[in-house]
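Lab meeting, action items carried over

1. Structure of the two-component assembly. Owner: GW. Status: complete.
Input record:
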Amino acid sequence: MTETDIIPIICDLLGPYNLESKALAAETDIPAELNIDSVGVLDFIMEVEDHFDIEIPMNVVSETRTVGDLARYVAAQKNKA
Amino acid sequence: MVDLLEKHRAIADRFQRMIDMGVNALGVTNDQMISPTRAIVGGREIILAGTNNYMGITFEPRVIAAGKKALDEFGTGTTGSRIANGSFAMHKELEHSLAKFLGLKHCIVFTTGYQANLGMLSGLAGPKDTIYLDADSHSSIYDGCTLSGAKLVRFRHNDAADLDKRMARDDTEGGRLVVLEGIYSMLGDRAPLADFVALKKKHDFQLLVDDAHSFGVLGPNGRGLGDEAGLEDGVDFVIGTFSKSIGAIGGFGAGNHPLFDTLRYAMRPYMFTASASPASVATSIAALDVLEKEPERRQRLWDNSQRLFDGLRALGLETGTHIVSPVIAVKMPDELTTIAKWNALFEAGVYVNMAVPPGTPNRLCLLRCSVSAAHSFDDIDRIVEIFKKVVAN
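Predicted assembly:
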């Protein structure tokens, strides 16, 4: 599974959190551009964890700001598995 | 130059919007305290329904006398940490009394409840360990977990099956700590302890319960969630605070582990801060004694909680939990409505807590009440009447 495969899935999962219906891309800064608060980001990450059946520790969340960052992390975890 | 405070501009704008709608709900100042349930604010007498003063013990004469005596005999402060010059005999006495009350072997007292969570969580878990915390955990738990340097895995609120799934995914070789709360501070619901204790048969972990809102409140002996569930043996560590049912300030961690006392030399929030003041410690000792001797306070708290819970739900208001709790949160549709209704309640003479995201789970906006044993039924009925007039209309 590649980052390219993962990015559209992450964008779909972001749907309920994208209250202003902003255009989403690999460069989208999730908390800043979508105006999601800290708890909202953690809730969204849980959805990503469950969808891909991987673990994304909270410690990692602060380092993965963009959709692309998150896709890279997910790809690394999936390919490790 | 980058202005360091500019990043908080959005908070300032949001705060200003609240101020523009009336009173600063986050800065209400009690000019005079008349009783555990009454204050003078801006020249008006207000019914307090958001104090966490569950046992209504803050004006108990025996407790006040103990505080005055401690001030006279031990002075105003300890001027040092517990591992330097700040350990007084009364700190040890409080630890001994708490351990006895809880039926546990060891107890360590902290200067605040917040520090108890910072200290215990960072002392128990380290960088090689994993902490599993409930998604609705209090900020002090999140902060303590972060301070530990452990890997942090968040599980869905009160969902042992979700924790099971996340534990199965994890390949950590270090220790594992699961953190729950007795009563969750925002919605007032409780952790289903039996479900989590049952997971111990499947996964290796140690279990910690933060009984901040349930110490003195839950269980036949008031010892907290484990006491209520009859599962104290399944709980490895208990954390609590003195700023709620004890009516003072401070916190504690307790457990039976033979190395528990070693935590005193491994917890930075314990070692590098001044110990609790003599008056705080003495009042905590006295208040604990009152709690033990007067279980009827706990019954009054539950009777009052049932009355407020029933009264608010009879108005058609949606509460945070479907079972009665001393924390009764009324759900609001959005932040602006919450601010407006909070102001209307305050204007009508009742103070509750205004709770909005991100301090709440699931982006909920809440008018959060907490009940006291010191409320009279007339107080409760008056609170319900005011809710009927200004919130349920």
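2. GW to write a short summary for the group page. Key points so far: Chain A has a mean pLDDT of 91. Chain A touches chain B at residues 37-40, 42-43, 45-46, 49, 53-55, 57-59 (CB under 8 Å).
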